């Protein structure tokens, strides 16, 4: 099968990304090992009650969003920073590849790895932890895809202010901890004071978690208190506010990426 001409170069860049990833043991562990550890932490939570649902499933659906930080955000910040500093981005830009093809291959690789993690975790939730097939898989997919877009644009921006690849994991830590603690991944936000709960809803990962949980359980997880059951159309309506927050972060990330992203080394 012949691929479109604009897609073939992008796939070649993606293949380069995969080759470099497998050669970096730290990156492999970050992308695949840490999610396995987080998934293992769900087993003791089975049978507990968090937010009116099984604790393992509650946290597991939060991890569906949280894995974005490993596979997409941290991975791309490291990749773009390392390639900028060793002048790979500059050399690629001197070829026939377009800017979109150079960066799109890396984003595509990260998205593919995240898709593998997501499918694996959904199997664990359904088979090992007594979960179910998502009530609205399209809504779940839309939320996760929106998260990929948001954290990819944020990765572009953050890579531009990251001095070198060795410091990349330190630079992203505040974002990771902020999302872990403020996006309702591990515990419901309704236990927080009202003003703090509203602030946490604007953490970039919060809308992804809200949309994912609503689509998975078929319950309203934007209303953090009651979680009433919702149908498919009502579920989408419930998540409109969350999608708006995603659009906000996507626009902000794009603006910051345009301003901060660098193609050449910072010391050049």
Automatic annotation (TrEMBL):
Chief subcellular location: membrane
Record keywords, A-Z: Membrane, Transmembrane, Transmembrane helix
Pfam families (UniProt xref): ABC2_membrane_3
Ranges of residues in domain ABC-2 type transporter transmembrane: 64-251
Chain segments annotated as transmembrane: 21-43, 63-82, 111-131, 137-158, 170-189, 235-257
InterPro entries according to UniProt: ABC-2_transporter (IPR052902), ABC2_TM (IPR013525)
Compartments, record wording: Membrane
Recorded topology in the membrane: Multi-pass membrane protein
Domain of life: Bacteria
Protein name: ABC transporter permease
